[in-house]
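Marked as duplicate of an earlier ticket. Keeping the data here for the record.
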Amino acid sequence: MYVAIGVTGITYILIALSVFGTLSVDEVIASGETAIAEAAESTLGQAGFTIMAIAALLATSSSVNANLYASQGLTSLLAETRQFPGVFGQKALLGGKRGLTITIVGVLVLANLFDLTAIASIGSAVALTIFLLVGIAGLRLRTETGSQAWIILLGIAVTSLVLALFAVDTLRNEPSTFVAMVALAMLALLLDAGWIWYRDNVDRSTQDAA
């Protein structure tokens, strides 16, 4: 695992160095999501841009496919543990579980409501929040997992700092995206609170009836 993380980290660093070694900061900002392809074009010509564009499409398709079908198992497990409503674990008419169908619908709604930059920012915020929550959970369970507390605390501190800086930068440069991020977070909290309230009331009614 450590080797995989190290190789991935080095790869990202090398890509960043290659891009900023080829393009200026202003050119990277102007290129946006196509900065890597623009850097390849300046070195290899139109062929470089085309190769990077095709690689990006393949990588995106693979990522979307993997995440969508991983969500089926995740939402089914959360439905079994009653963290999600049971409908997520039910079988869908076209095969698979309804959790997958609901996830696809949610993705389509987001894809049609927000542009690519906003979606990338929202995804980054969600990923950082998940990393932070996993770190907090790891800290609470460190005696069971045998983890080193200082490593977990370091990860929590770094993730919190990055998340805070990311939020400030998004608020300053993309206020509409920041508002969307906050709105989605509030919606998630409200849906979770509503489900917990409904679930507990049903359990209480069942116990009273018994």
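See parent ticket for discussion. The chain has a mean pLDDT of 87.
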